[in-house]
Specification:
Length: about 425
């Protein structure tokens, strides 16, 4: 698990170096902010259509081999981009094609690496391992974003892509030496046994995408988790957009002030990941409660009279969001049976892409109509009120324990009462 965490830290740092440099590269080639947004959408769009197939591949193929190959392919794309940049042969069309290829590979790589990391600890420690993964992700994001500017200044843009390629190769090299922990699901070294018809599936097994969709749709807690995440994604969380407008607009701050806010958000994300790593039994109820609390904090942030007050509120906002994400990820990755987890993560990838692509435009429209403060306040109220109503409705629907009248010493009646109470 330590080797896996180090490898993921380096990979995340390299990925954020590339993402930061890629945005600058698109601006350099086209001079258009819209083109920058388009390149990000092109890289994310394959998840909308291919995540289901990627999840099926993860359930069907040996997990270590799948993760190693996908990491190597991502490294090859990064090295190809580095060579084209160094030779000054990269145009916008080629960059878009490479971004789309990266997005397609990621539909397999994401769930494969997530499930592989879970197999390195006992089942009861999976929520903690997910919290460690969130901590590594946030730390890698901070380091990678900072290193991007230094690397470009001293070594050039191609060096950032080459560094990301090396980070992928390091992960691919580490994976074959990872061993599942005692008591783990042991998904890492298990592939479906060959069937009599030679298709690589166990006879009678169902490795279709449809099975993953049906499991997700028939699992109320996963549907509720998707609804909570969708609300938060559309009406909150896009703080890079809402807080940027709030700081530079009503609070009359500049780019430096927003940089301070972004740093506090990053620190809060790391603190939240540390707290999330201590979760033992995360639940959808916990995710909803934290999301509602984050919505109320967002309302308070929208009403901030000064930058100092905003900074005080931003830290708990980021902590609550990070713990909520860790709890939700733990539920998502541990609730399905082992043979379905890849496909369930594939379904989630498609749903998350819908929120990711549709959320910012919807929030931008809300900001056009209500302003930065209005968008933060209205969005936070929608999140808190909707989730609160859902939790209240569920609480009222829970059956009350049945109490049986029993005489003192009536052992049979007492046992029946305890049994019915447990059933309720």
């Amino acid at each position: 698990m330590r080797w896996w965490s180090v490898a993921n830290f380096l990979s995340n740092a390299g990925t954020w170096m590339q993402l930061t440099v890629q945005n600058l590269l698109v601006l350099q080639i086209t001079g258009s902010a819209a083109a920058t947004g388009l390149s990000m959408s092109v890289q994310a769009a394959p998840a909308l259509f291919m995540s289901l197939l990627g999840g099926r591949a993860v359930d069907r193929w040996p997990l270590k081999l799948t993760a190693s190959v996908s990491q190597a392919l991502l490294g090859a794309v990064a090295f190809t981009t580095a060579v084209l940049v160094a030779l000054d042969r990269l145009d916008m069309t080629t960059l878009m094609v490479l971004a789309a290829v990266t997005g397609m590979i990621a539909t397999v790589d994401g769930p494969a690496c997530a499930l592989l990391g879970n197999d390195l600890v006992p089942v009861e420690d999976v929520p903690s391992a997910i919290g460690v993964g969130a901590l590594v992700h946030n730390a890698g994001r901070l380091v990678g974003t900072a290193l991007a500017g230094v690397t470009v200044a001293f070594l050039g843009t191609a060096a950032a892509y080459a560094a990301n390629g090396l980070s992928f190769l390091f992960v691919a090299t580490v994976i074959p030496f990872l061993r599942p922990a005692p008591g783990a699901v042991r998904h890492a070294d298990r592939a479906p046994a060959p069937s009599p018809d030679g298709r690589g599936e166990t006879a009678g097994s169902d490795l279709t995408v449809r099975q993953g969709l049906l499991f997700f749709a028939r699992r109320p807690r996963l549907v509720a988790l998707a609804a909570i995440t969708g609300l938060s994604s559309v009406f909150g969380r896009n703080y890079g957009l809402t807080l940027a407008v709030l700081v530079t607009g009503p609070l009359a701050g500049g780019a430096g002030a927003f940089g301070t806010v972004s740093t506090v958000l990053a620190v809060g994300g790391i603190l939240g990941a540390v707290l999330g790593a201590r979760l033992r039994r995360p639940s959808v109820r916990l995710v909803g409660t934290l999301a509602a609390a984050g919505g109320l904090l967002q309302v308070a942030a929208g009403l901030s009279p000064s930058l100092v007050v905003l900074l005080i509120l931003v830290l708990p906002m980021a902590v609550v969001e990070s713990v909520s994400d860790t709890a939700g990820t733990a539920v998502l990755q541990t609730d399905p049976p082992a043979h379905l987890r890849g496909r369930v993560l594939g379904v989630w990838g498609s749903i998350g892409t819908v929120w990711g692509l549709g959320g910012p435009p919807a929030l931008g429209l809300l900001m056009e109509l209500a302003g930065a403060r209005g968008a933060l306040v209205a969005g936070g109220l929608v999140i808190a009120a909707t989730i609160g109503a859902g939790l209240l409705r569920r609480t009222r629907r829970l059956p009350a324990p049945t109490i049986l009248p029993a005489k003192p010493g009536d052992l049979r009646a007492q046992e029946a009462q305890e049994a019915l109470g447990t059933a309720a």
